[in-house]
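1st attempt posting a full record on here, be nice pls
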Amino acid sequence: MNKLRMAVIGVGALGRHHARILASFDDVELVGVVDARPEQGQQVATQHGTRWFSDPGQLTGLVDAAVVAVPTVYHHDVAAPLLTAGIPLMIEKPLAASLQDAERLHRLASFRKTMLQVGHIERFNPAFRMLRNRCDGPMYIRCQRVSPYTFRSTDIGVVHDLMIHDIDLVLALTGGHVESVDSFGAITIGPHEDMAMARLKTSTGVIVDLTASRMNPTVERTIQVWGRNGYLQADLQTRRVSSWKPRLAFQLNPRLIHEITASASNPMSLKDHVFGSWMLHQEVQASSEDALTMELRDFVDSIRQRRRPVVSSADAVQAMEVADRVLSAMTLWSFQNGSQPVKHPVAA
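the predicted structure (as tokens):
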């Protein structure tokens, strides 16, 4: 099998891991890394026995595919010439700095019939995959994604930095379009929103509550789903998946609880038997597979097999459309000046 010639454009905090993983694939030749910072680019190139380039244009004719991991504000300008040249790309999320630029990249890839995958890595999280396989008929979803400030991705706010992960997961779970959006946010360090909360309602009737913050003292990444058959929770950090559902007797006869209550001498004592006796609890540890490796494997295999990737540019555009609606609906409070709540600038 011929090796797929690949390059990584942008080898900072995340891109260097793309380079490391691609260099380990037997069916990939990492022909180069691109970074505007000579010291950073040369260091990563030397580490993996490849070449450093200062400009993506130098890759023409040398690569079969590439990963774009530069700051979001540069996604469109870096990716457009490569897609025009027919080079398949995986671009880190969000697809672009604006919905308009994301749509342009999507249309360009479609016109050139060139594969464009987007790095919504949580789709490859084994805990989410397990939850999705067990999820049947979601009715309410709650996502919590909070962490300390990392001083990375400061060119975008928390909606495009963190919340967009959960927007993508929710769209994948529900398969519906978002009909209504309510949201609130706050600036703490700035200049963009650092905390955001949103409530979505989909065309299939699912209610979704999303919380994202990069000003939290601890890290939490969880998704909770209430459905027709019970409750599921996936901790995307620890990869523990929990479920609660009524035992079969209650599923077949919902009025059984009245019979049990009537037969008890002290109904208050029954509360200790709800969880365990009548509600079935399961907790499973999902696999420890590396999500970034799985994502890059999907990229390589999608190119070789000429198939749609798990997360296409169409998926990414849909997530960005919802993210823009969250921002447009957002009432924004600034802790920096203690001002009255203002409308988010994109809504002006």
